[in-house]
Specification:
It contains 11 helices and 4 strands, in the order αββααααααββαααα. By secondary structure, the chain is mainly alpha-helical. The strands form 2 sheets. The protein has a two-stranded antiparallel sheet. Strands 3-4 form a two-stranded antiparallel ribbon. The termini are far apart.
Length: 243
């Protein structure tokens, strides 16, 4: 066989994301999603392994201002910046309003997660706030009012109820209810793909194997990472897909 022809035939198997390879196409979105999903799953598996094999590493893994908490903060900030970038570039006043509000909400979550830079900048918590914040942190989600823990009530039960509505109920409504599809298309609310919903639910349930309150640090990491994935690579990237 001609060496040059052989080289040309072999070169057909060398490509980059998005370029055609014979009858096979490698899609950039597929590669990105595979990397991001693997990233989240791997961190959950590591956390579960540490819990059952080495609790000291488990606590180090999930320590305050540690590795997982910083990644949680990163995903909140990344989602906020993405929404802020998207808002002026999207058509429709309702869609623009949604993305600007979402940008503010996720930035607030980012600020709360790092206590608005309290430990990074080293400033003191105001005395009045310290009295109602058992952790002496400059944030709202750790406040106790009249014996009610806002973190457990608002950022726990209510938040996670909303999360499962978002990941499970809303995509189903979008696929099967015309009125809801029209509403979502108007606001351009990004909805999770079936794979994102499945993976998030699987990881949430997997973390229930950990009988320690620190597991919620990992739950937060999984939640904000998959919300970022849903905003970045939504099911309704093209409005109104076929039912």
């Amino acid at each position: 066989m001609n060496p040059i022809r052989k080289f040309r035939s072999s070169s057909l198997f060398i490509t980059v994301a998005g370029e055609s390879l014979g009858h096979v196409t490698i899609n950039r979105t597929v590669l990105l999603s595979a990397f991001l999903y693997t990233f989240a799953v791997a961190h959950v598996l590591v956390g579960i392994a540490f819990y059952f094999q080495d609790t000291s590493r488990f606590y180090s893994y999930l320590t305050e201002d540690g590795y997982i908490e910083y990644f949680t903060s990163f995903f909140l900030l990344a989602t906020s910046l993405y929404c802020f970038y998207k808002a002026p570039r999207i058509d429709g006043k309702w869609a623009k309003a949604f993305f600007y509000v979402a940008a503010a909400v996720f930035f607030f979550g980012f600020g709360e997660e790092i206590s608005w830079g309290q430990r990074l900048l080293g400033f003191e918590v105001p005395e009045d706030l310290e009295k109602i914040n058992p952790q002496s942190e400059f944030n709202l989600h750790n406040i106790h009012l009249n014996g009610v823990n806002l973190n457990k009530l608002i950022f726990g039960k209510i938040l996670y109820l909303g999360v499962f509505v978002y990941f499970l109920a809303l995509p189903a409504l979008y696929r099967h209810r015309q009125w809801f599809r029209q509403l979502v298309d108007k606001t351009r609310l990004p909805l999770p793909t079936p794979l994102q919903a499945l993976l998030y639910t699987f990881l949430f349930i997997s973390l229930l194997l950990i009988n320690d309150g620190k597991k919620w640090e990992l739950q937060e990491f999984v939640l904000v990472s998959f919300i970022f994935y849903a905003f970045l690579m939504p099911y309704n990237r093209n409005p109104s897909p076929p039912v």
